[in-house]
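Project standup — Tuesday

K.O.: blocked on the structure for the chain from last sprint. Re-posting the sequence here as requested.
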Amino acid sequence: MGNKAMYDVLLIEDDPGDAGLVRIAMRRSHYSCRLHHVADGGEAMAFLRRHGSHEQAPRPDLILLDLNLPGRSGHEVLEEIRGDSLFRAIPVVILSTSGADRDIKKAYSLGASSYVAKPMDVEAFTAAIHSIEDFWFGTAQLPA
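H.V.: unblocked you, prediction finished:
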């Protein structure tokens, strides 16, 4: 069951409803996760760089990134994360309502670790979050 007692997950999501669903799903998980939620790309980079109110921020074990964000798009945030050697190794899972092939291709070309289309159904949404956790915390080897 994973190689760590507690996982830090950074959720970059502007929709409070979707953020709430992720929070509920993680609470019901068999992995111990601390969910850190930011609503846009600027705040996400401040969190990662420990700027401003995020000076105590942990390094996330996993990033869940929405594509449709205010200001910088998720693609731009992904490009910024992958362009920084300090954060390049952190797995980034795109969690988006878009199932458009161009969005999927662009995300992978920018270095997304995986791409998950957000299910509209609450049960399916919860199952998707649990399968992401099972893979990244139960199956995959994460960098220390």
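K.O.: great, moving the ticket to review. The first strand starts at residue 7 and ends at 12. The CA atoms of residues 61 and 144 lie 9 Å apart.
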